[in-house]
TrEMBL record:
PANTHER family: FRATAXIN, FRATAXIN, MITOCHONDRIAL. Involved in iron-sulfur (Fe-S) cluster assembly. May act as a regulator of Fe-S biogenesis. Keywords: Iron, Metal-binding. Transmembrane segments: none annotated. The keyword Phosphoprotein does not apply. Pfam families: Frataxin_Cyay. Belongs to the frataxin family. The keyword Magnesium does not apply. It comes from the Bacteria. NCBIfam families: FeS_CyaY (TIGR03421). PROSITE patterns: FRATAXIN_1, FRATAXIN_2. It comes from Pelomonas dachongensis. This is Iron-sulfur cluster assembly protein CyaY.
Length: 110
């Protein structure tokens, strides 16, 4: 499904903000020490042990890219959520990657 440029920007930036809010909540509740650094459409998560997860918007392709130890994933808006080529939803894939890299169960939810 193709979005207008304005809709893509709104949805992609809302997703990055949602991830940042969850990380901030974990820090406030002393759940896990994750540092989030955002520059424009790029969000870098630094996890315990020195690993990183990078989330990057790709406006020309209308995609969101996720780079983690487990691999690189490309997500497109399907009309209801961000899904990758295998049909995995973004926050579910991010939760699995963050849990693996942090060594504890972490869940990003909508």
């Amino acid at each position: 499904m193709s979005l207008s440029d304005a809709d893509y920007l709104a949805k992609s930036h809302a997703l990055l903000a949602r991830v940042e809010q969850q990380v901030d909540a974990w820090l406030d509740d002393d759940v896990v020490d994750i540092d989030a650094h955002r520059t424009g459409g790029l969000l870098e998560l630094s996890l315990p042990g020195g690993s990183k997860i990078v989330i990057n918007t790709q406006p020309p392709l209308q995609e969101i890219w996720l780079a983690a130890r487990s691999g690189g994933y490309h997500f497109r808006w399907d009309g209801a959520q961000w899904v990758d080529r295998e049909g995995q939803e973004f926050l579910a894939r991010l939760s699995r990657s963050a849990s693996e890299q942090a060594g504890q169960a972490l869940s990003f939810s909508a």
